[in-house]
Design brief:
By secondary structure, the protein is mainly β. The chain is built from three helices and 34 strands.
């Protein structure tokens, strides 16, 4: 089926906040058949046949946006993805396709820090059992150039904030390491292995200044388990004993690795870095065998805060069978917040609330805010001045954008659409993206200058 890109005009009965009436672009991928012509309600099969747009990546200056379009093939039980680009000022009329592969995929487009080119993952030169490789391409023309020849493929990548490094993860399952290439040497630069370890790198991220990479790595790798699976003994071992994981730091200048957590009282499950780079918030999972590697493992996880300069760790929560979200820092790094049930004394089905505290208030209590709101509160994104947290929440059969005042805890509903909305903000560019769909409108993306009037 052909694609139909269209503007959806702002109608008088749309009730976005006044600022969102400054709509500058909208992208819709929809079926160009009777559904579009007659505006009838979508059926289940209509939805299954739709091409899917996703992986929205605005450039840092907010001028252009890369995205992927995935085409399903239900006969072959497969799908195929390509990369497109659109001007956020001109909208859908400026949209164009950048990659053209019939039976291969291009995914995860990512702008270089200076916005002059982008990199992406693709299996365009790989056989059926080989993994994805990295490619680079200019958005204004030219062929894609291959960047990596990783034997096991590439399973994640990112640019350093200072634009010097392109770092990617590659290796056998459970033993993946980090490799880096200087951006100035792309595409022909030889990759340097940055980490060495028996076990593989799990989550990883750059420090805001680009001088360090922080990562989570298990204490050991089970060679016997690897051999068992290779020999075809693939039965699941219930509540298997697994190694603890720690938070590590890699100094990109010296190339040295060092553990940042050494405690035996928790296993690091994930982390978040404050925008100023002074703090790292991380989740510490239970060390008990029967509270780990289970579906509800997060019920036995608590939140910790590390001061990077001193390595001092503060335990922020100490609960049993209470699920908490990961930590969220305000843009100015003054506040730290997480969501958890209204009742944090024991396991409960109560609505989620926001808990907030000044980052440097060591040992201080968290304030519970949003207590009068009659739905779950999820961590969304902060306002630039750190006075407001925005989040999406259900209202009857719709989903709307809400704003919560950090000081008072008061919640305001900002949108009143007869639709499901999903509003987010891109961290690098600050671009606001509004996902929109209703019974006669396929998934559609708007962008706007601000969520407030």
């Amino acid at each position: 089926m052909p694609e139909l890109y269209q503007y959806l005009p702002i109608e008088d009965d749309m009730r976005f906040p006044s600022a969102t009436r400054l709509l500058i672009a909208v992208l819709a991928l929809t079926w160009a058949g009777e559904v579009s012509a007659q505006q009838r309600t979508f059926t289940f099969m209509d939805v299954q046949e739709l091409k899917r747009a996703g992986s929205w990546v605005p450039r840092s200056d907010g001028a252009l946006m890369l995205y992927t379009v995935t085409t399903p093939d239900w006969v072959e039980a497969s799908s195929q993805s390509d990369i497109h680009i659109v001007s956020l000022a001109d909208g859908v009329s400026s949209s164009r396709r950048l990659t053209f592969t019939d039976d291969k995929n291009e995914t995860q487009p990512t702008w270089s820090p200076d916005g002059s080119f982008f990199v992406f993952l693709s299996n365009r030169d790989s056989g059926e059992s080989e993994g994805n490789q990295l490619y680079m391409m200019r958005h204004d023309g030219g062929e894609a150039q291959k960047v990596t020849e990783a034997e096991e493929g590439v399973s994640g990548f990112d640019f350093s904030p200072d634009g010097r490094w392109l770092v990617y993860r590659s290796g056998e399952s459970g033993q993946e390491q980090l490799f880096g290439t200087l951006v100035a040497d792309l595409p022909a630069g030889e990759a340097e292995q940055l980490t060495e370890g028996e076990a593989g790198i799990e989550q990883w991220d750059f420090s805001p200044d680009g001088d360090h990479i922080y990562f989570v790595r298990p204490d050991e790798f089970d060679e016997d388990e690897k051999l068992r699976l290779e020999e075809g003994f693939t039965v699941d071992v219930k509540n298997a004993t697994t190694p603890f994981s720690r938070l590590w730091s890699l100094d990109l200048g010296s190339g040295s690795e060092s553990p940042m957590t050494t405690s035996e009282s928790y296993s690091v499950d994930g982390f978040t870095i404050s925008p100023d780079g002074r703090w790292i918030g991380f989740a510490g999972g239970s060390t008990e065998r029967y509270e780990r590697n289970i579906t509800q493992a997060r019920l036995y996880t608590d939140q910790y805060l590390m001061e990077v300069s001193s390595g001092q760790v503060e335990r922020l929560t100490d609960n049993y069978e209470v699920g908490e979200s990961g930590l969220s820092f305000s843009p100015d790094s003054r506040w730290i917040a997480f969501t958890a049930p209204d009742d944090m004394e024991r396991y409960s089905m109560t609505n989620s609330r926001m808990y907030v505290r000044a980052v440097d208030d060591g040992g201080g209590a968290f304030r519970k805010i949003g207590t009068e709101f009659d739905e779950n509160i999820r961590a969304g994104f902060w306002s630039d001045d750190a006075t407001t947290i925005y989040f999406n929440a259900g209202v009857t059969v719709t989903t709307q954008l809400h704003a919560m005042d950090v000081q008072t805890g008061q919640v305001r509903q900002l949108t009143h659409e007869r639709a499901a909305l999903s509003v987010s903000r891109d961290e690098d560019s600050g671009v606001i993206l509004i996902g929109y769909s209703d019974p006669v409108t396929p998934p559609t993306v708007f962008t706007t200058a601000s969520v407030e009037g």
